[in-house]
Specification:
Blueprint: E1 2-8, E2 11-18, E3 24-28, E4 34-40, E5 46-51, E6 54-58, E7 64-70, E8 74-80, E9 86-93, H1 105-112, H2 114-117, E10 123-130, H3 133-144, H4 149-177, H5 181-196, H6 204-211, H7 215-226, H8 230-247, H9 253-259, H10 265-276
Antiparallel strand pairs: 1-2, 2-9, 3-8, 4-7, 4-9, 5-6, 5-8, 7-10
Helix pairs in contact: 3-4, 4-7, 5-6, 5-7, 8-9
């Protein structure tokens, strides 16, 4: 397990990674009460929050954003396995530091997360939703950067600001659309269906039918929740998977393209370059 703690501008940043060939329980506590936002990257690890004799389970955590208030009586328990490694970035601060945050984030915390700033329990859950592709890519960059020293700190500061900007922007969209719990679950199911078969995804009509809503509502609500249209999201996931196949599993460009449903190498390379800024041969 790798755990890195960094203090930046009255924030505490926790970067945590863990993997295991067997089932592993990784527990985390906070020494003092915090208001925090947790961003879950690759892995889809299981999460159980335990507090005051109660517990709350979260499943399908890949891409999840969880905001919360927690004091030292709260335990965060991750269930890690070979197929579900942990990759979690937490941005935390305390109530006394809210007015000191560098870019006026305290005002947005009070506006969007007032229930966390004025807690009524040991653990208070704020909004939970899925990251849009820009947020997901920023989180990935925290775990893949190789900078050291002052440059590393500069990288962290700029990316924390960018990540929080996307976070509060996404909260604004969700508030405007006012998704209900049942609809959120259906849109999350649509996401799971897409991710389960990137090579041969269903059509928009098939996807809407499988989750029990019409295509127009699916398009509107999916974009509201994930920040991009359905098949733009699908394309981003395909290309991200292809990138990992080339970089981490040493697949050829042809193998990676086929694995995510591209028949044309030219189309694949052009889409790849548009997303990442460089050709797949440069990975």
């Amino acid at each position: 397990m790798n755990r890195e703690i960094i203090d930046i501008n009255d924030y505490t940043i926790l970067l945590e990674e863990a993997s295991s060939n067997n089932h592993l329980i990784d527990s985390c506590f906070f020494d003092e009460p915090v208001i925090a936002i947790a961003f879950y990257g690759q892995g889809d690890v299981g999460l159980t929050v335990k507090f005051d004799g109660k517990s709350k389970d979260f499943h399908h955590t890949k891409g999840m954003v969880l905001s919360f208030y927690a004091n030292d009586k709260v335990e965060f328990e991750h269930q890690v396995s070979k197929l579900k490694p942990l990759q979690c970035l937490v941005i935390a601060t305390t109530v006394r530091n809210i007015d000191k945050l560098p870019n006026g984030e305290g005002r947005f915390l009070e506006k969007f997360l007032s229930q966390l700033i004025h807690p009524k329990d040991h653990f208070v859950e704020g909004p939970v939703f899925n990251m849009n592709p820009e947020m997901f890519q920023l989180v990935e960059q925290f775990f893949s950067n190789t900078y050291q020293g002052e440059i590393k700190m500069m990288f962290y500061k700029s990316h924390i600001t960018a990540l929080l900007s996307h976070y509060f922007g996404q909260l604004t969209k969700l508030q405007n659309v006012k998704l209900n719990t049942s609809l959120i679950e259906k849109i999350n199911l649509a996401q799971e269906i897409l991710l389960s078969d990137l090579e041969n995804p269903p059509s928009l009509t098939e996807l809407a039918h499988s989750i029990g809503i019409n295509t127009n509502k699916l398009k509107i609500q999916f974009k509201a929740q994930f920040g991009v249209p359905v098949f733009k999201y699908l394309q981003n996931e395909r290309l991200t998977k292809a990138y990992n196949l080339i970089k981490n599993e040493r697949k050829t460009i042809q193998e990676a393209a086929w694995a995510v449903g591209y028949d044309s190498l030219g189309s694949f390379s052009n889409a790849f370059e548009k997303k990442f800024g460089y050709r797949p041969s440069q990975v």
